[in-house]
Design a protein that fits this description.
This protein is mostly beta strands. It is about 10% helix and about 60% strand. It is built from 2 helices and 11 strands, in the order αβαββββββββββ. The two termini are about 45 Å apart. The N terminus is likely disordered.
């Protein structure tokens, strides 16, 4: 029997040596595991809905969404449709009245620069979009200044009202700065400011594109435009990712 124990002890020596080759850590380390939620956030622009109710010359709807790709990076998009009636006057005379109607889509990324506490998913973002719009314009009426009338020069109605210019399009880049705050569980309020730079602008030679859906007013001699939105959205959690964070271990005395 003693020979059996001696043989067993000798056979276990290599395993004991391997175990002793690694340093023994007698201090206890606490590891806290965080789980970040990833998913899709969808909603609508409140400002366009509000103006659709209070402004009889405007109708618009914009749907917004983003998908959390990493802890800081989001894929983002907006899709919308707008119709706006506008005019240009001189005194009490309407120089021209026109209506623009069309759709647009914007796609890009947002980067969250805000460091959330555990359990929070708020965001202060910077990002960019590439946007395209397809629309039409209708020149409802216009007046031409007639100077050949010697005794009473005046504005005369245009001879061809209600002309529609279709097949118009535009594309632009947007720089976006935004904020999203969680009001209640998975419900977010957000706002963003946008600076657009017009890349392409297909227009009819008879009437310029003075306003583009999604881009807003086109300024003569400049390719820049500004915009904003106020959104209400709902976050749909799809999965979670663990993030472990080791707490600091006090030094031994």
């Amino acid at each position: 029997m003693s020979k059996y124990f001696i043989s067993l002890f000798i056979a276990s020596l290599p395993f004991l040596a391997m175990g002793q080759s690694k340093p023994i850590d007698l201090q206890q380390k606490d590891t806290v595991e965080y789980k970040d939620e990833f998913g899709l956030r969808v909603g609508a622009d409140l400002s366009r809905l509000t103006f659709s109710f209070i402004d009889e010359d405007y109708t618009g709807l914009e749907l917004v969404g983003d998908y959390r790709l990493t802890r800081k990076l989001y894929l983002a998009a907006e899709i919308g449709n707008e119709t706006k009636l506008q005019d240009e006057t001189l005194g009490h005379t309407i120089l021209y009245e026109y209506e623009t109607s069309g759709s647009y889509i914007k796609a890009g990324v947002d980067i969250n620069t805000y460091e959330n506490w555990f359990g929070m998913n708020n965001a202060i973002t910077i990002g960019g979009r590439y946007a395209v719009a397809s629309f039409s314009q209708t020149l409802n009426e216009y007046n031409i200044f007639e100077s050949n009338q010697f005794f009473n020069p005046d504005f005369l109605p245009g001879s061809d009202p209600n002309v529609e210019f279709s097949g118009l399009s535009a594309s632009w880049l947007e720089f976006v700065m935004g904020v999203k705050v969680e009001l209640f569980a998975n419900i977010y309020i957000g706002m963003s400011a946008r600076l657009g730079f017009l890349i392409t602008n297909k227009e009819d030679e008879r009437f310029p594109n003075l306003w583009i859906p999604g881009f807003n007013k086109v300024t003569d001699g400049s390719n820049f435009g500004v915009g904003y939105n106020y959104s209400l959205s709902y976050f749909i959690p799809l999965y979670k990712k663990s993030k472990k964070k080791k707490e600091a271990v006090p030094e031994s005395q």
